[in-house]
Request: fold
Amino acid sequence: MKSLVILGAGTAGTMMANKLHHALNPVEWRITIVDRDNVHYYQPGFLFIPFGLYQPEDVVRPRTDFLPKGVTFIPQEVDRIDGNHDQVILSNGQTLHYEVLVVATGAEVVPEETEGMKAELWYKDIFDFYTFEGSTQLAKKLQNWQGGNLVINLAETLIKCPVAPLEFTFLADAFFEDKGIRDKVNITYVTPLSGAFTKPKATAMLSTLLDEKKIKVVPDFYLARVDNERKVLVSYDEQEVPFDLLVTVPVNKGSKMVERSGLGDEDGLNFMPTDKYTLQAKKFDNVFVIGDATNIPASKAGSVAHFEGEILLENVLSYIQGEALEARFDGHSNCFIETGHGKAALIDFNYETEPLPGKFPWPLLGPMDLLKPTRLNHVGKLAFKWVYWHMLLTGKTLPVPTHMSMSGKIKEETV
Reply:
């Protein structure tokens, strides 16, 4: 019997386990998926926990609830990949042989990469919200915080869900307004980017919202260290931003297993060099990479993993059959952006096309508006939790095209 091994049982890995289980003959193929524990987090929900919109129990499920019968789950750390011998070595010494390997080991926050970030003020006056512990601890802090200088900071630009820091900022504005203390909170958004986002039209829309909400933006700020004693952020060119409460998005890196395997990128971030169209690893033909684990120039977001999954399934099957890898991923990303007070914006883009205004997914009818905060977009954001648990993880087809469509989009604004 031939063996297909998946490393990582998060969004991308679980989705691929389901897709491949339905596509491969169980008499010929054994599918094994490996992750360190049996706890699956709905990571988009971390954003809502600090504001009491979700409770911790809303975002946690056992991984095995979403894996099909016939797929073997091994709750174990991965030590390394030995690509020369088609083997995965686990931390307990167990060796898994594979004919095909899918790497879905994701990305993780590494606050230790920044001097002074994970020091005496960590989870006292400095918090992240990209982890379960960080978001739940921040929720406790915000319950009784009475105001001051709130700083939201991106340590680097290469992060999971690039719009989440802006969403947090907008939700914080609404949260403090609803509590009646917005006039006591100075909100500052500190970013290494030259604007609110990486794409011009989206940046223009988001910058307008920041201005309307009286949120100060400090651009081109490259964080060097956090001074815990003085409670200031210090950049490499010695700019300083003071804070009373710091909500940070720490450096994001890929799995250390990738580094131990000698398969990381040249930047030392432990993301695997991957063909951005076929999702085949650049070093080994029988290794494929999906989701946040890749180094492709696409957003590290759940929607991207979903769109990649359709392409990866086709190409894995083509590889198994000895055929050319003809399916192509176009960098498609689709993201709701919470803007506060029950509204959200929506962006849809790919490698070649930036977010544009218009209607989604159908021209004229929509019903979603692109680059415009609406209540319906907010409802769509909240509804995605059900879609995630019941459709995306289980590998079902979603009513959104895999490749980005220009249908409904307006290339040039005429008004």
In short: The first strand starts at residue 2 and ends at 7. The chain has three domains: 2-106+255-320, 111-252, 330-415.
